Amino acid sequence: MKKFNAQVLIVGGGVAGTTAAIAAARTNASVMLIESQYALGGIATNGMLCNMFGTHLQGKPFLGGIPNEIAESLITSGNGELFSKVPLSSGPNVVVDRVDYNPEAFKILLDEMVSRHEIDVWLGHTVTAVHQMNDKVLAVFGTATEVYEVEADMVIDATGNANVFKMMAIDIHRDEKVQPVSLMFRLCDIDKAVVRNLTSDTIQAVIRQGLEAKILPARVLGIAKIPNSSQIGVNATRGVDIHHNDTKALSQAMIDMRRQISEIVPFLKANLKGFSDASLSGVAAVVGVRDADRLIGQYEIKDEDLMKGVKFEDAVCTCCYPVDIHIAENGGSILKNIGGDGYYTIPYRSMVTEAAPRVIAAGRCIASQRAAFASLRIVGTSMAIGQAAGTAAAMAAVSHTDALTLSVKQLQQKLVEHGLRIR
């Protein structure tokens, strides 16, 4: 069996894992990144998400660091566009900033960034086992026909589901109640001028009409304008009571949501101005899951922390996105704005556990309660957490320490040097 070595191993190449890899490389560590799909970016690219939240606040860059570097790269290249104070279709009284983008261009941008930093990327490979040794971590990965080993000083769990911790037989948190899943799709030949001027009132009227006709399965009709094209991304499907670890149920949900799309498309063509010539141009191959298994860390971000807009002493990044819990029973959402001055911070303690000193959680699988998770699970915050995790892992590997003995103050200083907002 062929064996590799890396100072930092990152399992999962979604936005959190890819950002972690870039951050670790910029902190002078050798980096290996393993991703089961054949493109980086996770749900943001393979899932055709088409918009990212949390990178901006009130029309200005908010997170800083790599997240805003990525957002601004998409915008300046013409592959992204910033919209400020946009009402959420699931609750128009809550407004957010968002960047609509071309997910195919996002894939290419991430490829370019990891290549520029000479990161050892393994697409189409899956990690199947992780073993903690004295001062190293050994991971087994491969395909159906090939198996390899990699020995690393530090590992980042960026799987979006705490899979590394589970492979190490470390206890995790799992919510009993799950949010609905979704499947994004794209429409082409849209009248861009009309779509650009769609109002929240118009969208809400179409949602009511779709619910009455039993075409729309939920009170959600998210429309993302894909820049420099006549295409839009649409979020309107729902699969309810589908647990994110039940692969058979997810398989059936994909089939059912594609059937929903076949009914939603003609409905939108008939009922939205500017959509009459629209046709279906793409359906995501990856289901959008709103839940995740999560680490039981040194600190669990509490729902009340968000309502108070808490700023932690060991903060490593920030989040300004509201609580957004999708409800299966009535097809709606529970939406709550962040308290205080409109944002809170992510504490380093929520990313680490005494049970695995050489593993750091990144993205959705950090320690958090349900409502807190429903805020921080978005693309922007996941990238910020990824940058913090990658920087921490690299600093620990280069200084021959681990996640628990790493100086948090030195980590914060490095993150600020690299442009990430921590408070």
From TrEMBL:
Keywords: 4Fe-4S, Iron, Iron-sulfur, Metal-binding, Oxidoreductase
Domain of life: Bacteria
Lineage: Bacteria, Bacillati, Bacillota, Clostridia, Eubacteriales
Organism: Fusibacter paucivorans
Entry keyword annotation includes Iron: yes
Pfam families, A to Z: FAD_oxidored (PF12831)
Name of the protein in its database record: FAD-dependent oxidoreductase
KW Oxidoreductase (keyword) present: yes
